[in-house]
Amino acid sequence: MSGWWAVGIVVVIGLVVFALYLSMTAGRLDHLHRRIDTSALALDSHLLRRSAVSQELAASGLLDPASSILLADAAHTARTSADQGIDQRAMAESNLTAALVAVIDPEDAELVSESAEGASALQELEAACRRVQLSRRFHNDAVRACRQLRRQRMARVFRLAGHTPWPETWEMDDTMPGGLPAR
């Protein structure tokens, strides 16, 4: 009779440890999903700031007319793409990056930065571009960690992620324009 008690206690302890493991894994998944949501909001904010700064630079009169039109159009498209799907928005943001790279080359940036207003605009644009790069990297790292945890057998079998959609990385070109001041 005492042997059955020992087996029962071992089984109960094993079930408790297994339940704790599942609970901790579900908590980690929940934390990662919140981190993804937060990083997506931060990325959205930084993308909007970059497009706003780009529009300000285009309207400042510091660039030649063709460059101003190209940059203003790309910034406007990126800014208004916030309501579209992730693929269309990523394409619009990549197009803004391409416009920035084309417009802010080292020679033109040197001419723009001769005025105090131009130097300030380029520094603000550099900060906005840097924040976009960092927040996109942070978001994609959180998505990779979440995907890795969700791929584990126990997370799939016990549906620890619930009905949360599969997290998506943010793929876009966020190359820093060559003419921006380096930190």
Roughly how much helix do the residues carry, as a percent range?
over 70%
- CATH architecture descriptor: Up-down Bundle
Number of helices: 6
Category by helix and strand content: mainly alpha
What fold name stands as the CATH topology?
A: de novo design (two linked rop proteins)
Low-pLDDT sequence parts? none
Give the amount of beta strand, in percent: under 5%
CATH class: Mainly Alpha
Computed over alpha carbons, the radius of gyration is: 24 Å
Distance between the termini: 75 Å
Number of strands: 0
Sum this structure up briefly.
With 183 residues, the protein is an all-alpha fold. 76% of the residues lie in helices and 0% in strands. The longest helix has 58 residues, at 2-59.
Molecular structure report:
The protein is an all-alpha fold. The protein has a single domain (2-157), classed as Up-down Bundle (de novo design (two linked rop proteins)). The chain has six helices and no strands. The chain has helices at residues 2-59, 65-80, 86-103, 106-112, 116-150, 153-157. Helix 1 packs antiparallel against helix 2 (65-80). The termini are far apart.
Task: Please supply descriptive tags for the structure shown above.
183 residues, mainly alpha
